[in-house]
Structure formats: C-alpha cells, structure tokens
Amino acid sequence: MKKARMSLRIFLFLLTIALALTASLYLQQPGSVHAKETAPNGPITGWQYLALGDSLAFGYQPNNDFTHGYADLLAQRLQNEGLSEYVNMACPGETSTTMNGQCPRPKLRKYPYQGSQLQAAVDYIKQHHNKFSVVTLTIGANDVLPFINPQTCQIDDSSFNSALATLDANLKDVILARLTEAMKVNGLKSGFILVTNYYNPFQNICPKSLPYIETLNQHLANDVQGVGFTVDVFSAFGGEETPNQHICTYTWMCSEYHDIHPTDEGYKVIADAIDPVSLAARK
After folding, report:
1. Number of domains in the chain
2. 81 shares its domain with 167
3. Who has greater pLDDT, 205 or 84?
4. Is the pLDDT of residue 272 over 70?
C-alpha cells in the first residue's frame, strides 16, 4: 500500500512539472501575427524597413540636402517601435522600366548595389528572410511627367496614356509581383508594401494638368489593390484645390530653384501621411 501511495505521489509530482513546463512554453510564444510566421531557418525575429523608388523615395532636394526625406523621417519614427534595419535603395530619375534595368543616376544612391533596384530589393528581402519587411514604394512620376510641358502647359495625351499603360504592366506584373513573392516565407506573407501616390507640382502654373495627375494616381491605386496599400500624398498636399497654397511651402516650385521636389516640410507631410497607413497595416 505504501509503495502504491509513493508511486501515486511521484506520478502526480511529475504530472505537475509537465503541466507547468507546457504552460511556460505556451506563454513564451510571441503574440503578434507576424511572429507566428516561420522562416526557413527559424521564426521571424524583428523587422526591417526598405525604401524603394524614385527621387522622392530617395529624399532629393535641390539644395543638396538628402537627409530629410520621408523615408529617413519614417525610419526614425519606426526605430522607436522596434525597427532593427533601414535601407534606402531609391534612385533619382527611376522609372518603372529602369527599376528593372539600371539606375539612371547610380552615383546618387544611398545604398550600393549591382544591377537593378528591383533585383537588389528582392535579394535583400530574401537574404533577411527572418525579418518582417515594411516596404515603401514611390514610382511612376518619371514615366509620365516628361509628357507635361510646364513652360507651355501642353500635354502629349498619346504619349502620356502610352506611358501609363507601360507603368501598369511594369508595376503590377513585375515590380509588385516580385516584391510580394520575395516576402513569402513558407507560403506566408512576411511583410507589406505601401505605395505612395503623387501631388501635382504644376497645379498652380498649369491647372489643366490636374486631371492627368489624378489619372496617374488612380492607376497606381488600381495596380496596388489586393497586394499592398496606397498612401494618399495627393490629398495631404492639398488635393484638387487650385490654386494650391501648399505647393510653395511643400515643394521648391516657388523658390529660386523652381524645383518639383518636396522641401523638409513637404517630406514631413509625406511621412505623416504614411504613418497611419503603416500602423494599420502592421495590426
């Protein structure tokens, strides 16, 4: 009888330990959706921010200040939320075609890489597959803006529409498709893409260009649908209201440079527009 009682006590003791260990292991499991996704060599640990696109993503300003772009500001904010890595591969002058070819101005890049920006981004994401990826993308303006003449306000409709068709094919079928595939880990999505639309720098001097920029933005939204999120920079810069009082403060258009790129204030406005979309996408 004593031996039976002893065996029962030992059994209950071991059972208690086993249950405690099981509970401990359960409580140690990460609670976020992203952490549940598993990479080939282990669980997702931490996250990274990758900025892609043209001169706006690069943070270009005509006064040669390239350190206050929207991506730089966003990275600073995300570091307070646990961001571990920030890489800006954007290339000034980039189009949706050159993004899968060669950077037009490689000497201005903030991050060195060989070949196309798209391939470099895909390689980087795959090489850092244990990190959740936040990707911002600004592309398309350089595809269509050459067909808007700000001196005469003439617009080449045929070339503009042809460029839009090329942009749609490049963005939807190549750029977004490859980035989305690169972010899959064991069949699960381990990141998201935020695509910014565009303000109209010519809005005040060439009001009839407004519907063309709105058409560009609609195409971007259609291309991104289902695979990413659109950030409405157009509305953040004042939207359709013409004359648009923000053009002179958010861009360099009214300065001695007469340049279409954002000022420090303009880049902050873009970062502010991205913030809530990024937060919603991470929930």
Report:
1. 2
2. yes
3. 205
4. yes
Residue 21 domain boundaries: 1-30
Three-state SS for the chain is CHHHHHHHHHHHHHHHHHHHHHHHHHHCCCCCHHHHCEECCEECCCEEEEEEECHHHHCCCCCCCCCCCHHHHHHHHHHCCCEEEEEECCCCCCCCCHHHCCCCCHHHCCCCCCCCHHHHHHHHHHHCCCCEEEEEEECCHHHHHHHECCCCCCECHHHHHHHHHHHHHHHHHHHHHHHHHHCEECCEECEEEEEECCCCCCCCCCHHHHHHHHHHHHHHHHHHCCCCEEECHHHHCCCCCCCCCCHHHHEECCCCCCEEEECHHHHHHHHHHHHHHHHHHHC
Q: Give 177-205 pLDDT, tens digit per residue.
A: 999 999 998 888 899 999 999 999 999 99
Q: What is the CATH number of the domain that holds 48?
A: 3.40.50.1110
pLDDT the model gives residue 265? 99
Residues 146 and 107: their CA atoms lie apart, in Å, by: 22
Together in a domain, 9 and 133? no
pLDDT at res. 25: 30
Residues 138, 5 within the same domain: no
Count the Cβ atoms, other than its own, within 10 Å of residue 272.
14
pTM assigned to the model: 0.84
Same domain, 264 and 242: yes
